[in-house]
Write a structure and sequence with these properties.
Elements lengths: L1 H25 L11 H11 L9 H13 L4 H14 L3 H18 L27 H27 L13 H20 L11 H31 L11 H31 L16 H14 L22 H16 L4 H12 L8
Helix pairs in contact: 1-2, 2-3, 2-4, 3-5, 4-5, 5-6, 5-8, 6-7, 7-8, 7-9, 8-9, 8-11, 8-12, 9-10, 10-11
Length: 372
């Protein structure tokens, strides 16, 4: 009985996809340079986001990515096609596939000229609820939570990419450089928290689509963690006294200490997430280093003592933070630079830059095209 019911559900889902393909082919062409390819692009989007829950049409997804790579002006039409698809579905399979395609388009959007970039995600799935009849109530809620977690990350990522200024626009010798660095690090740490929420929320979710989504999230995690590590290294080095360098204010030092403790907590969460990915059989988890380097609490306390002692008092109330340096931490001007440099090189560069670039390039090129 179960096999017959599943057959009918899949047949009904296939009919929905065929109806969507027919409507896309009958839709009038839009004016503009892309008027001849809007139909083909929308057809590829529909096929890449079909109701089939056993696999994804990676060939159609690769076609969408290829259009976006060769013609950046296709980014926004592709996003609009995904938005139409999302507005009409209550199926977690279609929603998750659309998010994965949107993720790939956003990665390509970062390489496009500013005028052609996709901007913020043009659909809303923060309150998504699965209404497909192919899952039980408990599993349906778990898949819905997974889709919402993926959307929250992707939505914030697109907003962050649209608003962020480049590092070249900030002079390392200006007085606001350290606070600007801390603000960017804090945003990336929040982005990392959203990424770590992309995980199964119930048993029985080890299906190919969920593992594929976690595969994409894992690539992004290494990119974001690498940026956090680089930002922390720059902040710590900027706090060292030197010629033509602004002094480290206590407000910046206090904010930096909070950032360090948050980073130490996230490094522990990353270790657990990597173990989860290995246990589930996520593809990119096989490329993870055997031992992930974590920042130890003792190192954070040592850095905290150095930062707070070297900082100049600016009369700000923000200088007071919980967990300040122990009383037995004394200032060692000669050792401060040595200690900070040692911790930065041995603890924060836990992911080799070459690996980060490899995984980033692997996802940007469209890993969907290399599969079925």
């Amino acid at each position: 009985m179960t096999s017959v019911r599943q057959w009918w559900r899949r047949a009904a889902a296939a009919l929905k996809d065929r109806r969507s393909l027919l409507l896309a082919r009958l839709r009038p062409r839009r004016p503009g340079p892309w008027r001849w390819h809007h139909r083909e692009l929308e057809v590829a989007v529909i096929r890449a986001t079909s109701h089939e829950d056993r696999w994804m049409d990676y060939g159609s997804a690769a076609r969408v990515f290829a259009w976006a790579r060769t013609s950046p002006s296709s980014l926004r039409p592709a996003m609009r096609a995904l938005a139409r698809r999302e507005r009409r579905t209550r199926c977690w399979v279609v929603a998750l596939k659309a998010l994965m395609v949107a993720h790939g388009l956003l990665l390509r959007s970062g390489l496009a000229p500013p005028a052609a970039r996709a901007g913020r995600v043009p659909f809303e799935l923060a309150d998504f609820r699965d209404r497909s009849s192919s899952s039980s109530s408990a599993r349906s809620q778990a898949f819905s939570a997974f889709v919402r977690a993926y959307f929250r990350f992707l939505d914030y990522r697109s907003l962050f990419a649209a608003q962020e200024d480049t590092d070249d626009g900030v002079d390392a010798e200006c007085s606001g450089y350290q606070m600007t660095l801390l603000d960017r690090i804090a945003k990336r740490q929040f982005l990392l928290e959203l990424l770590l929420q992309i995980r199964p929320y119930a048993d029985g979710m080890e299906v190919p689509l969920v593992l594929e989504a976690m595969d994409c999230a894992l690539v992004e995690i290494f990119q974001v963690y690498g940026e956090i590590s680089t930002g922390i290294a720059r902040f710590l080095v900027s706090g060292l006294p030197g010629p033509a360098k602004p002094p480290l204010r206590k407000a910046a030092a206090a904010a930096g200490v909070k950032m360090l403790w948050r980073a130490a907590e996230q490094s522990a969460q990353l270790s657990s997430y990597f173990e989860l990915c290995r246990g589930l059989g996520v593809d990119n988890a096989r490329k993870l280093p055997a031992a992930f380097t974590r920042l130890k609490d003792d190192d954070v306390r040592h850095l905290e003592g150095i930062l707070m002692v070297d900082a100049e008092d600016d009369g700000s109330d923000e200088a007071e933070v919980e967990g300040t340096a122990p009383a037995d931490v004394t200032k060692d001007a000669a050792g401060s630079a040595s200690t900070i440099t040692t911790v930065v090189t041995t603890e924060w560069v836990g992911v080799r830059r070459g690996e980060i670039k490899h995984w980033r390039r692997h996802l940007r090129r469209g890993k969907y095209g290399a599969r079925r």
